[in-house]
Write a structure and sequence with these properties.
Blueprint: E1 2-8, E2 13-19, E3 25-29, H1 36-46, E4 49-54, H2 66-73, E5 76-80, E6 90-92, E7 98-100, E8 103-109, E9 118-122, E10 125-129, H3 147-157, E11 166-169, E12 179-180, H4 181-187, H5 197-205, H6 215-222, H7 241-245
Parallel strand pairs: 3-4, 4-5, 5-6, 10-11
Antiparallel strand pairs: 1-2, 2-3, 7-8, 8-9, 9-10, 11-12
Protein name: MBL fold metallo-hydrolase
GO molecular function: hydrolase activity; metal ion binding; sulfur dioxygenase activity
Domain Metallo-beta-lactamase: 12-171
Length: 249
């Protein structure tokens, strides 16, 4: 199998490319519209055909490239069934394996950051989206976020995976790339070790994070599988620069 971890610096988002060298099919997890050309170039370089894009959740900090990649390559869109997106070709369900050639993802419903958030287990690694970050987790104060639910998702579902399972998060803001379930269980300051539910809820309540500056544009656009708004302010234009500059667009 072929695996690449790709980074989008504006929103500090990781996109993951998984390719099956036998069939030539590939999957992109959490592609970002601003780096679509990079992803297409990487697919061409590796001699792969994009079969599916897969998102972990409806993002609030970037626009997914799912729809534009479908237009450019004919790829299909897979997304959590919980969100009932009419633009998705496949709705992913917890407990139902998602197979693309020799690639098999195990969808894990991990609500808490958003109500419809999913992680995806692939062989010895899990793509945790915003549910579990390296030494952290996603916020729980919008989009159906729920600290109780996130604590349960991580402690009961993700932390039940084998300790050597590699953790590939949806974001990192300190130039870190990968962790492990055992590492997060031991040292994650929000969810690891002996942190109780009440302690976790207190930690999340005290974060006092600012309102996401791109959220009012990203969420509606991502409910359409990746549509950049026509009224995007100039100070946010880099989030959709791809669409103004790319010949794909």
């Amino acid at each position: 199998m072929i695996f690449r971890q790709l980074y989008e610096p504006l929103s500090s988002t990781y996109t993951y490319l998984i390719g099956d060298e036998h069939t030539g099919n590939a999957v992109l997890i959490d592609p970002v519209i601003a780096t679509m050309d990079r992803d297409l170039a990487e697919l061409r370089r590796l001699g792969l055909t994009l079969a599916y894009t897969v998102d972990t959740h409806i993002h609030a900090d970037h626009i997914t490239a799912a729809l534009e990649l479908k237009r450019a390559t004919g790829s299909a869109i897979a997304a959590p069934a919980h969100d009932r997106l009419p633009c998705a070709d496949v709705g992913l369900e917890d407990g139902t394996p998602f197979q693309v050639g020799g690639i098999t993802l195990q969808p894990l419903h991990t609500p808490g950051h958003t109500a419809g958030h999913y992680a995806y287990l692939w062989d010895d690694r899990v793509f945790t989206g915003d549910a579990l970050l390296i030494d952290g987790c996603g916020r729980t104060d919008f989009q159906g976020g729920d600290a109780d639910a996130l604590y349960k998702s991580v402690r009961e579902k993700l932390f039940s995976l084998p300790g050597e399972t590699l953790v590939y998060p949806g974001h990192d803001y300190k130039e870190r790339f990968v962790s492990s379930i055992e590492q997060e269980k031991k040292r994650n300051p929000r969810l690891g070790s002996d942190v109780s539910l009440e302690q976790f809820k207190s930690i999340m309540a005290k974060l006092a994070l600012p309102y996401p500056k791109f959220m009012d544009y990203a969420v509606p656009g991502n409910k359409l599988c990746g549509v950049c708004p026509p009224n995007l302010p100039e100070n946010l234009s880099n989030y959709c620069r791809q669409m103004s500059e790319s010949p794909q667009g």
